[in-house]
Amino acid sequence: xxxxxxxxxxxxxxxxxxxxxxxxxxxxxxxxxxxxxxxxxxxxxxxxxxxxxxxxxxxxxxxxxxxxxxxxxxxxxxxxxxxxxxxxxxxxxxxxxxxxxxxxxxxxxxxxxxxxxxxxxxxxxxxxxxxxxxxxxxxxxxxxxxxxxxxxxxxxxxxxxxxxxxxxxxxxxxxxxxxxxxxxxxxxxxxxxxxxxxxxxxxxxxxxxxxxxxxxxxxxxxxxxxxxxxxxxxxxxxxxxxxxxxxxxxxxxxxxxxxxxxxxxxxxxxxxxxxxxxxxxxxxxxxxxxxxxxxxxxxxxxxxxxxxxxxxxxxxxxxxxxxxxxxxxxxxxxxxxxxxxxxxxx
Length: 346
Ligand SMILES: *[C@@H]1O[C@H](CO)[C@@H](O)[C@H](O)[C@H]1NC(C)=O
Ligand SMILES: *[C@@H]1O[C@H](CO)[C@@H](O)[C@H](O)[C@H]1NC(C)=O
Ligand SMILES: *[C@@H]1O[C@H](CO)[C@@H](O)[C@H](O)[C@H]1NC(C)=O
Ligand SMILES: *[C@@H]1O[C@H](CO)[C@@H](O)[C@H](O)[C@H]1NC(C)=O
Hints:
21% of the residues lie in helices and 16% in strands. By secondary structure, it is of the alpha/beta class. It has a single domain (68-344), classed as Rossmann fold (3-Layer(aba) Sandwich), CATH 3.40.50.1820. A nine-stranded mixed β-sheet has the order 1-2-4-3-5-6-7-8-9, sandwiched between helices. The termini are far apart. Residues 128, 130-131 line the site of one 2-acetamido-2-deoxy-beta-D-glucopyranose.
């Protein structure tokens, strides 16, 4: 393939086509449950204890201090609508084709030798240097180590002038689960200039985000880490009431994009939203997708649109994007897309 000078050569990277992923209820229920067996511990497990704030968000379990052991998930969802399954009226019916995203900077998936065991999403051609580009560290559902799992969503975000590093290579899960350190490795890499070949990275604009277990990893990596300026949790929130006191330590805006009452993050995210420190801005939106979201749809579907709008508002001060998120009456608002929206301190 002929390339423009300076074009990032994603074709040379080790890329596998996105697997056909048509989620079934069973798969979605097991998203957090998978591969718990291989947890390797090298430090004491965090024990909930109000008044005790660990120095970092690490823990022996995947997802970090805000998470629970994978084996315990069914205990927390038993007897709730979340136990019934992971889909809703807004769930995609299949996997949408991979595109370069809908944004002004056609993007692709690749790998980077400077950040082993991760997958990079970035514009194919570095945007002009006057576009400052935020950086996002991404954790996958079940904290799986397959960096291609959210390809449609993450390519869409990248096409709006972002660089995203997802945990795991794009070649499929290696069986283990990612840890907080994997997310931190991505942020360390970006801070040290590792991503500068993709464009003019603004290291004052770093977000952590993820789905399910990966969302809790995103909250855990941002805990006590002033480099992280935004947290976005997809379809998840803290499971254990005894861990919610940790929210007192958050200092940056939190957004939850959840999937209605069949989502294991639906009730819990509403609890967390209420328990944030006074004055901290927060955004909460819910669409009837169950736990599985709309990730597999082309460009990440309605979650892709919501995530881009939130990021463009937060990191680029885009007033149209802000209205999409906050103003139900604005054209193309998330409310008009059937999201229930709540926010505070904005
Ligand atoms: C990458 O992952 C493989 C398989 O999980 C592991 O053996 C290797 O040590 C990892 N490399 C780095 C640099 O983390
Ligand atoms: C960057 O500069 C070009 C050329 O002057 C201009 O067209 C473009 O709008 C600028 N972009 C930003 C993000 O400022
Ligand atoms: C939206 O809010 C309505 C009214 O509270 C509720 O019945 C519905 O389940 C909510 N839908 C989602 C997807 O959260
Ligand atoms: C703001 O966002 C809208 C919609 O996402 C987009 O069309 C527009 O170009 C953006 N404006 C700027 C100044 O980036």
